[in-house]
Amino acid sequence: MLLKKALLGSLFSIILFATLAGCVQYPTERQTIIDLRPQIVFRFESANPQFNDARVLVNGLDSGRLVDFIEGKGSLRVLPGMNTVRVVNGMEVLLDERAYLGDGVTRPFNVK
């Protein structure tokens, strides 16, 4: 009789443990998505005052000041594919190039 009670008690404990173990939430892995859009940077003589007011146009859209995208200090993320990059200072065109930019690429442009 005592053995039967002990066996039932241990069986009950096993069922209880299996039920509770099924309710535990296991740790999950946190994953982040890295931004793989291509980046554009510019190389130019930063001491030249001509570049202070120059604007960057990507596919005809004004994207900001040239000095904000100096190589090593900032970059401009664009959509992958064929892009037209222009740098203008007033009516003067300092750079006008078409380039294919793929995911994860950083493409420097030289402005003279």
Write structural notes for this entry.
- The chain is rod-shaped.
- The chain has one helix and seven strands, in the order αβββββββ.
- The longest helix is centred in the N-terminal third of the chain and has 21 residues, at 2-22.
- The chain is 19% helix and 36% strand.
- It has one helix spanning 2-22; strands at 39-43, 55-58, 61-65, 76-77, 81-89, 92-101, 106-110.
- Strand 5 and strand 6 form a beta hairpin.
- The chain has a domain at 39-110: Immunoglobulin-like (Sandwich), CATH 2.60.40.
- With 112 residues, the protein is α+β, with helices and mostly antiparallel strands.
- Strands 3-2-5-6 form a four-stranded antiparallel sheet, with no helix packed on it. The chain has a three-stranded mixed sheet with strand order 4-1-7, with no helix packed on it.
Number of strands: 7
Terminal Cα span:
98 Å
CATH class bucket of one domain = Mainly Beta
Largest sheet features: 4 strands, antiparallel
The low-confidence parts are none
Order of helices and strands: HEEEEEEE
Helix content: 10-25%
- Class computed from helices, strands and strand pairing: alpha+beta
* Shape verdict: rod-shaped
Number of helices: 1
How is the CATH topology of one domain named? Immunoglobulin-like
Q: Which CATH architecture of one domain would you pick?
A: Sandwich
